[in-house]
User: Fold these one by one.
Assistant:
Number 1:
Amino acid sequence: MDLQKKDEQEGGAASPSGNEKVVEKKYLVPFVLITSLFALWGFANDITNPMVSAFKTVMEISNFKASFVQFAFYGGYFTMALPAAILIKRYSYKKVILFGMGLYATGTLLFYPAAQFQMFGFFLASYYILTFGLAFLETTANPLILSLGSKETSTRRLNLAQSFNPIGSLTGMFVAQQFILSKLNSAEKAADGSLIYSTLPEGEKAIIRAQDLMVIRDPYVMLGLVVIAVAVIIAVTKIPTTNEKDDNFSLGDTLQRLIQNVTYREGVVAQIFYVGAQIMCWTFIIQYAENIGYTKAEAQSFNIIAMVLFLSGRFIATFLMRFVKASMLLAVFALGGIGMMTVTIFVGGDIGLYALIGTSIFMSLMFPTIYGIALEGLDKDAEFGAAGLVMAIVGGALMPPLQGAIIDKGVLMGMPAVNVSFFLPLVCFCVIAVFGYRRFLTTK
């Protein structure tokens, strides 16, 4: 039993004969409620990814400027992760979660005036505030899930909870496809494939722009109402207080301990590159598909398929971690991502698109596994360490604009620039593979 515990604490898994429950009965209700938050932020993430393409068309802006949707969205995570961690030291997980849900709802409801004013900057501000709330939720929910049971099953428990994140993501993608992208009048094309919208006089454009911005607005407003409803349920439910208030908390001492922890330090770097890779693959799959002749709505169908594969891969990875160390599985999956990106870049066409879709299988275990490995052994620094890993989501803010700028070039090195742009996620997967292999070597 001691060997089994040691194996799991080092990023491995229980032996097949282990009888540790991933979720104990006494924690089942709070586990289910907190797991629902994973679906809620998954919805927000993946209804937003295709909005880069939507805003590009509706507002008639470049890929680079449109990708500031992601800069605002993931920049909010970076801004609020540390304040969230500090609040966790002062208040219960439940109070911080409710505060985060309030910010989440506020950001979504601000889409109403943003559409009325027809200002891209207003939408960006709404995304920014929305993700203030998501930063509080992720900084709190991840360590809370880890703490709802034994340490031996913590990584598996987090993977199980994270498995419901793609369900929210799939729902967000479906809503984006059926209720936004397919209803954008500005995306209609002529027989020769050119956008009709771009040829219209300004007066007609203004009418279509107003209509399309309302199409974008409505699902976010509805989402805000759902968030408020879930917050009310959590407010009246007892959530275990597994974090300890620490009035003597020292930010400087905590930072010093975290920086000196090699596993944690490298985990944050790996997470930055992972989130960057994920957001680039899921955001610009639409541009990749459009480049070979598909419409926005059709391209979003491929994103949905990718998410189904991602969800399947998450459950498969959770099962495999019963037999294979998480760190080794991470390295192997990263190599799979490298292979898929190579096909996406150099083969192109439908085969390249299928490879881009298939990348989601290999991305499926990365976020929770990097997260779990990086937080191992942090004990009282876990909440603050979680904030650093949530701040690492800034990779999703910084890298998409760079990829968008590459795509705007049109053609590079004799290839479509959209193909070349996927060198960026390829590099990201290389970093993740190195991290996984290094962690495996230190725990052999």
Note: The radius of gyration is 21 Å.
Number 2:
Amino acid sequence: MKRVVHDTWASILGVLYLGLMVNLLVLVAAAPLVVLLMTTDPVHSWPLLAVAAPLAAPALAAAFGTFRAHDEGETQVVRAYWRAWRATARQALLIGLIVVALAVVLLVDVRMLAETDAAVLVVPVLLLLVVLAAITGLLGLAAIAEVPEARLRDVLRASAVLGVRRWYFQLLSFAVLGVQFGVFTTMPAIAIGITAAPALYVVWANSRHCLRPVLDLDQEPAAAVAVRGS
């Protein structure tokens, strides 16, 4: 019985440590974006936010990689995070750049066309494309956390297709992110220090499940992911 109690408490403390350290490491890795969000008005500072946002993509991919490593038994959170960051930073940054660039172009078009006669037909399509870009980017970050060596083209194609086919998974992910953003706007310290890691964990687990048709999750970790057609 004592052994069971000890293991239970060790597991609880391990999860708490994982959450707190991931919060801290994501804050450090995504510091430019976090600082801008906390100190500026996004309505006026959106060009700076657009520049800083891609830099946060490697931070998210590394967090996903850390959750994966912890799921496989890794207990050294800092080492797992920076190992995942080094392995995924280039691909994640490219995904961030592509998604942010598309979103900026599409949203600028929405703003320009909002007062025209074509707005009723064109604006919903443009907003739908923004959502598709966000879904593809989020799933892409989860995918490269599983297989950093995957070709970016294959990752984006699989993420876009599965994001549309399994759209119901994305509802949960974006609902969680929406709640997290709401907490951040009202209680930034709580959002950064406590709720960020649980929210990201839910998004990672949900995205991983969404990608299951193209992920071989039952194989050894070193070859755990295979993108079909790659």
Note: The first helix runs from residue 2 to 29.
